[in-house]
Amino acid sequence: MLSRRNAIIKPVVKPEDQTLRTAIEQFLSARWRSESEIISAYRRLCKETHPDLSGRSGELFVVVQQAFHEALARLDARAGTPSGFDPYEVIRADGYPEQRPPRECFLISLMRYVALGLYSYRVRRNSELQKRNTRVVRSVEYWARAYDRELLPVFRAFDETQLRPLSSTAEMQRYYRARRVLLDGLHAFSQYQRSGRSITAEVAADRLCKGIAGLERVAPGDRSLGLARRLIPELDLPPVCAGLTGGREAEDLAERRSGGESGGESAAKSRHSSYSPRRFRTSR
Q: At what angle do helices 59-79 and 35-49 cross, to 10 degrees?
C-alpha cells in the first residue's frame, strides 16, 4: 500500500507541479466519507496530470493512480469490505500497460469477461475455475465503479441474471433466441474494442438493438437489458485499440495499418479497419 512519503517521488522546480503534489498529498491523507467523493477528486486530478491532457511527463499521473487505489482500500477497510486484489492483474494479463483511464480498464476487463463466457451460469459455477472467474468479475466491478458509479449496479444486474421461467415452450424459445442475439452483440462489441473496425461496430449495434427489442417483447423486466442499453452509447466513443501504446492489440493494430498495402487497396481496407465516430440508435 502506498504511504504518503512514497507518494512524493522527488522534489520539483515548477510551482504548478508542487501545487499538484500538495493536492495529491491532501487527497491521500483525507478521510473520505464515500466512494463518490474519492472518484470525484480522482477525476479532477486526472484531468490535471494525464499526459494527453496536461502535456506533463506522466509521473504525477502514476502517483494519482496509486493514491486513488489506496484511498479506496482505506475506505473499504473502514467499511469492513474485503479488498486485497490487484485491479490491474486482468489488464496486465491481456498485455496492456497499467497507465490507462478507468473507461479503458473497464472495457478491457469486460472484454475478458465476455471472452471467458462468464455470463453463463455453468461457466461461472465451475469449481476448478472459481478463483479465476472471481478475479475477472471483481476487476469488471472495480473499474465499472471507477468509470461511472451508476454502471456498477447495471453490470451486477446483468451478471446475476438467471434464465427466466416462462409460461410456454414458444415463449422460452423466443427468450433464448433474443438473449442469444444480445450475447452475439456483446461479443461483437468486444471485437470492436479490440479491432476498431467500423463494420464490427455496426454489427454490434444491430445485434444489441435487436436483442433488446426481442427481450422487451417476451421478458420486459429482464435484468440483462440495462447493460446492453448502456453499452450502445459506448460505440460512439473511441475503442480501446484507438489509444493503445502497448500490448498485444497494439501490435495487431499496427500490423493491420501498415500491412504493406498500397494505393487504393490500403484506402479500401482503412474504411473498414479504422475508428470513425458514429451515432447509433437505441432501437430498431
A: 180
